Every structure is written in structure tokens, then in C-alpha cells.
Amino acid sequence: MSSNRGICQLCRQEKKLIKSHVIPKCFHKNMKADTNSYFLVHLNPLSSQTIGDCLFDKNILCASCDNSFSSDEKYTSIFFESLRSSKNQKEIESSQVDAISVKADIYHIKNCLLSILWRMSISKRLTNGLVHLKEKESILAQRLNDPKILDPTFFPFTIYSLRNAEFDPRSQFLCGTAHVSSFKNHDIYLLHIPDFFIFFHANETLNQHILPASYIDDQNISIIEAPTNEILYFLNMIYKDLSNII
Hints:
Blueprint: E1 5-7, E2 14-16, E3 20-21, E4 38-43, E5 46-51, E6 56-57, H1 63-67, H2 70-84, E7 89-91, E8 99-103, H3 106-122, H4 136-143, E9 157-161, E10 175-183, E11 186-193, E12 196-201, E13 215-217, E14 220-225, H5 228-238
Parallel strand pairs: 9-14
Antiparallel strand pairs: 1-2, 3-6, 4-5, 7-8, 8-14, 9-12, 10-11, 11-12, 13-14
Helix pairs in contact: 2-3
């Protein structure tokens, strides 16, 4: 059996590389069918297949570096599950957006989410081909697993709830990060997990006129209640023509 040795993209040491999930397995475990398999959709060209596992790369991380994100991934997946069951939420008083405020450990959530963005950028898998952080890859890697990642101006993100689009089966899909736009030097990427959009601002500043940040403080996070028309816009952008398979 091949040892699959190579340079780990996080610690930069030559080690045995493992099957590392770019999007953590705990994020899509509830998407498995009764057959313990996933329904995978390929958008270009449009096709579908049933598979036993997905969204991993065998050539990016050693076991130690991959495991360094485990506690953050578990915490964050439980956090999203609690949101789905509407626990520990309160309305935010704001004239600009409809949102809820949730108590949470932001370090775990931000470290997990930004590690996904980073893994998508360094992965050579075709499914992650729309994320190109370029020189920002090393900047982000230096802050992963470091409390400095909590700086609210560092790679801000916005979480949108898709509660208003339960009628659309695409809201339950999972899709690797899509490039939304480059707006005034703001590269924005979108990760879709069941019931949520997560927008990443791949820069160190945030124009609040583009999207409000979900960061409130180290123990509070805001979840935007996305209007139906916005949800449909992005679902149509990601899943252009799925009429033959949904």
C-alpha cells in the first residue's frame, strides 16, 4: 500500500498525507440516504451519481494538522444543528436587516469556517476549482488555530438562514464554495450547507454596504434571515438547471 507521502500544506513538513475532508464530514452526515450514500450532482456537464463519500482530498494535510480542526468542526456542526432547531436565539433590533443573535464561541466557528475556505483554495480537486485565494492562502494559514483569527476585520463572514426557502429542495443541498463576485477589490465566496449560506469576504476589510458581518463579539454571532428573493437569486446562480434531477 502506498504511504502517500508529501508536503502537508499547513505545517509544510513532509509527512504521510491522509484523506482529509475539505468540507468536514459532520457537516453533511444528515444528508446521507438510507443506503448510507450521498446523491452527488455534477453541474458541468449536468449529471448525478450515488457515492459513498465525497468532498475530500488525499493530498493536502497530514493527520496531525487535519485533526487540529476536529474540535472546531464538531462544535460548529452542533451550532448549526441547534440553529435548525431554533434554540438559544433572540431577535436583533435593527432597521437594516432581519437577524437573530446567538450566543456562541466565535473562535471555534470562525476557525472551522475559514479552515474550510482555505482547504478549498489549496485543494486541486475539480469540485473546489472556484476558490483562488492566491497569496492570501499563506496569510490565512498563519492564523488558523491561532486566537488572532478572531480579529473582526480578518476575513469577515456572513451567515444567512434559508428558513424562508424551505419550499425549495435546493435549500437542503450542499455545495462547495462558489465565487460570487469581485466588488471593489472584495472577493466574495459562497458556501452552501443545508439551510444556510455562508459568505466569505476574502480580504481584511469589510464594506458593510455589501453584506453585514455576522461577528458581534467573541461570544455572540448574528444570523441574517435572508429574504426569499435573495435566496432564490443565489440558488439559481449556483444550481442553474436542475429541473431534470430534483
